[in-house]
Amino acid sequence: MSKEREEAISFVLDGRPIWARKGDPVIRAAEEAGTYIPRFCYHPRMKAVGMCRMCLVEIKGPRGFTLQPACFVQVSPDMEVITDSVAVRKAQDGVLEYLLANHPLDCPVCDKGGECPLQDQTLAHGPGESRYVEEKRHFAKPIEISSIVLLDRERCIQCGRCTRFAGEVVGKGLIDFAGRGANIEVAPAPGGTFDNYFSGNIIQICPVGALTSKSYRFKARPWDLEQTESTCTSCAMGCRVVLQSSQNEMTRVLGIDSDAINHSWLCDKGRFAFEATSSEDRVLAPYLRKNDNLVEVGWFEALTQVAKTLTAALEKVGPATVAAIGGGSISNEDAFAWAKLLKGYLSVDSLDCQPEGGVDPSLLLGGKIATFDEVVNSKLTLLLGADVEEEMPVLYLRLREALLAQTTSAVEIIERRTSLSTLVSSSLLIEADEVLSQIESIDLSALAGVKVKDLSDEQVVVVVGQADLLRSSSWRSGLVAKVLQRYPNAKILPLLQGANTMGAVQMGMSPGLLPGGRVIGKVPEDFPWPNPPKSLGRNAADVLSAAAADDIEIIFLLGPNPLSGFPDKSLVRQALERSSMVVAIDSHFGEWTEYVDVVLPLSGYGEYFGSITNAESRVLPLGQSLVPAGVSQKGWEIAVALAESIGYDLGFESESDIWEEIQAISKIHRGFSPSLLSTEVEGVVVPRSVKVHIAGRRVLDPVATPGISSVKRQAAPLSEPVAIYDFNPDGELVDSNDSSDSLDELSDVMKERPTASIASRKEPDKLRLHLARKLYGYGVEVASSPTLSSLVSKPKLRLSSESARVSSVEDGDVVRIISGDLSSGEFQLEVSNDVVPGVLVAEFVEGYELDKFGSLNGGVLVKVVKA
Amino acid sequence: MPEAAESIVLSRRGVEGSHTLDVYLETGGYEGLRKALAMNPEEIVAQVVESNILGRGGAGFEAGRKWSMLKKSTRRYLVINGDESEPATFKDHFLVENDPHQLVEGTIIAAYAIGASRAFIFIRGEFALGLERVQSAVNDAYKIGALGRNIFGSSFSLDLIVHPGAGAYICGEETALLESLEGKRGFPRIKPPYFPAVIGLYGEPTIVNNVETVSNLPWIVSRGGAAFKALGSGRSTGTRIFALSGAVKRPGLYELEMVKTTFRELIFSDDLGGGLYEGRSLKAVIPGGVSAPWITPDQLDLPLGQDEVAKAGSMLGSGSIIVMDDSTCMVRAAWRISRFFMRESCGQCTPCREGSNWIEKVMARIEAGAGREEDLELLMDLCDNIVPGVSWPPAQTTICVLGPSIPSSVAVGIRMFRDEFLTHIKEGGCPFE
Ligand SMILES: Cc1cc2nc3c(=O)[nH]c(=O)nc-3n(C[C@H](O)[C@H](O)[C@H](O)COP(=O)(O)O)c2cc1C
Ligand code: SF4
Ligand code: SF4
Ligand code: SF4
Ligand code: FES
């Protein structure tokens, strides 16, 4: 962890000497010492403003003890603080009574009732009866703050958390206070709303029931909710969440304040993805295609059918005729069990958890993976083809904060500007075909404003993005390889597509790989899998091409629609049509259901327990809060059952059986045990040789996240200055400079992949298509969550003015994209110099058939014409 | 009328065309600046320290001391506070309309002394004529080389920007003013750490001075700090404009040598306030703007000096003196003042936002005849929750001192005129109507 050693100081709290971190506000230092000071406006992840005045305590200064806001004043050595005097109580009671004066008596019908700091404070300290006999403030009923957030103004206590979140954290100050004095109210900017990827956070941080989500409003009462800790699976960040449910239905998801990951924030995709779990299109039972119709069958029938067809194909043709696509969105346990069945027993190597190309496994396994903390604290962060806000939204918030605070400096290299472009030191727009030859001559440190002599290459982090879905993984690794030549010890952070892509790769779900980064050609004698693959399989794109050419018979689709981000949908259609059996292990019916022959029902988000490994290689727990829908099963259970139907025993009866085997054969997971996940709220980074910070854990601030009753972190009071230790996988203390195993036995097999060439443009009016990855562009969450699907907007096209001139189109024109015989629907064109000339940027949003132009084989040339 | 020696900032009062450059130059305009530019900045600061001029914006802090506390930085700003929005305060209004060049000259001198290369004059938006006149004075100053690059051939350069306020009293509070100037909501900042002299405009060290304060500078530089200090007495040096209003025959602005005149003289002298109307008797005086606790007829011999009034439990504040005679309903007066604060609270801190609102509602109810006896205890307690102990000078539960101004008139009104409150309650209405 790159965190500086934190300095401890001592001060006097109600007469006792207390240790605290230097720079902490009094309110936090007191809290860690067990003294709770009431508060409303203070939020540990935002700058203190001292507005609500609820936290007034007496602090000694030059003029003796005076009342000061504990959230605003920082502890200093030997400072004297009194929190329990008559004067303090009078002041706090006064503030509370004032807050209640105009507050409606809504508690029985308010969503916050039961978890409301205002209600709690009032019950604990408040006056029994109101002295306020005047008329209360009235407002017309709720106003819309964003498409998903409503504000009941009379409940607002003007703490400014939501407005500060907007301005300070998101940087889009689209809500602010309007009016003055008692008429002050939170309001959206004239003509605008607080619509962005993060609007749901203001519901979570509002200390009263003023802000509600349209979907949760009036649905449940907090005391009926059961809470389960889990991890968001809507992207590879792995934000820590609690799932809250009532009567076997999830009602909401709240962000846990994790230092290493999400700082309590969630993006709206992660916050509302849970709605997909209870959507109408859930697969509740196995289905089998009979006479062209999918009919519901029992598990036995479905599995027997799959086993029969599979065994026949393997006998007749061999393992090369079977392939599996997906696995990046199922758990580690699921991935391992499927890898064991397909690779270890059936010798099938064509298994690819990154169908959309993704990031080359050799980089994921052989490179040094940066943690998010390292990204935001690096000397130089290089954003390569990354659009962080679209690809990993909460990381965007953290990077934005870091860039503003100048804890890192960044250089962006991409074909079009992103929301970070104005914050980075330099944003270079370079066409993808040119960047490979240019990257070596770019002076990155100068662009970042970092002096070369101050820069050791360990302090460089390369964020590898997938902002253009048409870029191949070999293009990406080629680029990264060139950067690594310059900075050999740089770390990389891949913006992977699946929540568990990293875990799946580590479990061997890529061609040529076995768990732990082992390669298929080099299996030791005592390897416990009986029948590992002998020859290198195909990646997903090749599988699809082969299937389209009748060269593959059986395709497994592993996990919730693994092909949803795949940019060449006509290829997928052909491939699925042509193969003799497509087996979907899926939680939802969807896009490809009509091409599928067998559907095996998979438990959904919140319905099973397990783990995932996020993009920084941190293993994180998934919690179960619901009874699985219908007769759905966990992924690994399905693998075990299918193995049984074929006649094999995978040897797994529980998750711990699986982990025992993972630990035995995966070098990456040495020293890791899933039991660690029950105590480590931040999860565990693997391989395990990272520094462990034994500073007392941060106490959960109950008012920061009203609604989260507790999480498993303990409040360890600081008793002495903090130390940082390293230990190796065997638990021994080591020198902190000792680097981890480099897993460099990843052999040539991985490197021999053909490199895709990039289509070069010869005719000037031909444009290369750049399909921009969008947060709401695709995915089961988006398709099946009512809240999220309502947020999808029509894709926009962007073109540079130079290219617009050549193509004879103008800003605002309605245009079509054409390529050969293909022609798209109509889109509005934006002409903008935020795009490199020669490239047409089209946002990739499912349902607009942009994918018909897609092809992973080196880019697509198109034209735009006026509609 | 005041004698010549006592007239510093109002010296051009009554002169035809006093706001024009020609008249200004004819009457010694920009001499102070020329002299200042021949001096070191440090020497000017020394003169201002010597003069001991107290800030005229309300808080009465020594201008020279404030300047000396300005943090070192390559960039410093000067901001002149002309937001004057308090009821019965109208001195800066007069100065911006009638002697804008004096203000501009004073501003340039101050900027030179503190090493600011950019200065702002923030003027209450409703002062349309004042804004126009100050802007043309600034334009004139650029024309004659008193602003811009190399002022009067010296190495000193300064840009001066005139900025209209957007209509909020709170933007007169110096940190709210800076927020407003930065284009944000006028929410006061928390001091510490946001003392303007340390972290001011755009985070840089900034001096905020009142219009009247800097309008004295041309005179101080021309005649020397000692000459200024020779006027007045004790800490209260020089002259000061008193804005007299209320139940007197001759309300208006009076520039008087500090401490040398008493409240009684100001109100009753024929050449000053001219006394009360026939048959009226004095009930109370607000000595320094509506934030100040009231004083009673038996305190009239207090001299018009900063420390003298402070010692008597109130303040000279912005120099606005409101006279209330026996035709004034004290409940109504206190209510109207509480209503002013209720409307002008920025709404940031709970005690000020909710306290001002609640207090105003109770006061309105009492004035309207729907009061209850327990309301008086309630009011005192509500005041106590804004100013613990309802003390003076006020202890504070709020971010800025607008909050603590709320209790002044209400609590003092109840303490001094409890019977009048009770009459309203018992008779179910206002006895003055
Ligand atoms: C609510 C409030 C309103 C104020 N309004 C004004 C004002 O209109 N003009 C002014 O000069 N000072 C005003 N002040 C005082 C300023 O904060 C500041 O002290 C003053 O401008 C400093 O200038 P001086 O030192 O020259 O007096 C106000 C203070 C408060 C708390
Ligand atoms: S809506 Fe909620 S978060 Fe926003 S200011 Fe009001 S109480 Fe605070
Ligand atoms: S950033 Fe990713 S992990 Fe975090 S809430 Fe959003 S989708 Fe979930
Ligand atoms: S005391 Fe009143 S005016 Fe001052 S900051 Fe607080 S709410 Fe605003
Ligand atoms: S003022 Fe400290 S919590 Fe609001």
Describe the structure.
- Chain B: GO terms for molecular function: 4 iron, 4 sulfur cluster binding; FMN binding; metal ion binding; NADH dehydrogenase (ubiquinone) activity.
- Residues 1-5, 692-697 and 713-759 of chain A have low confidence and may be disordered.
- In chain A, the strands form ten sheets. A seven-stranded mixed beta sheet of chain A has the order 15-14-28-27-26-16-17. A six-stranded parallel beta sheet of chain A has the order 18-23-22-19-20-21.
- In chain A, strand 8 and strand 9 (185-188) form a beta hairpin.
- Chain A is globular.
- Chain A contains 24 helices and 40 strands.
- In chain A, helix 7 (299-316) crosses helix 19.
- Chain A folds into five domains: 3-96, Roll (Ubiquitin-like (UB roll)), CATH 3.10.20; 136-278, Alpha-Beta Plaits; 287-358 and 502-685, Rossmann fold, CATH 3.40.50; 362-495, Dimethylsulfoxide Reductase, domain 2, CATH 3.40.228.10; 767-866, Barwin-like endoglucanases (Beta Barrel).
- Chain A has 867 residues and is of the alpha/beta class.
- The longest helix of chain A has 18 residues, at 299-316.
- Helix content of chain A is 24%, strand content 20%.
- Chain B has helices at 21-26, 31-37, 41-51, 63-68, 91-98, 100-114, 128-143, 174-181, 211-215, 217-223, 225-229, 263-268, 306-311, 330-344, 350-367, 374-384, 402-416, 418-427; strands spanning 77-82, 118-123, 159-164, 206-210, 232-233, 236-237, 239-246, 252-257, 282-286, 320-325.
- Chain B has three domains: 21-229, NADH-ubiquinone oxidoreductase 51kDa subunit (Rossmann fold); 239-325, Ubiquitin-like (UB roll) (Roll), CATH 3.10.20; 330-427, Up-down Bundle (de novo design (two linked rop proteins)).
- Chain B is built from 18 helices and ten strands.
- By secondary structure, chain B is of the alpha/beta class.
- Chains A and B meet through strand 4 and helix 2 of A and helix 14 and helix 15 of B.
- Residues 55-59, 61, 63, 81, 83-85, 170, 172-174, 208-210, 213, 400-402 of chain B line the site of flavin mononucleotide.
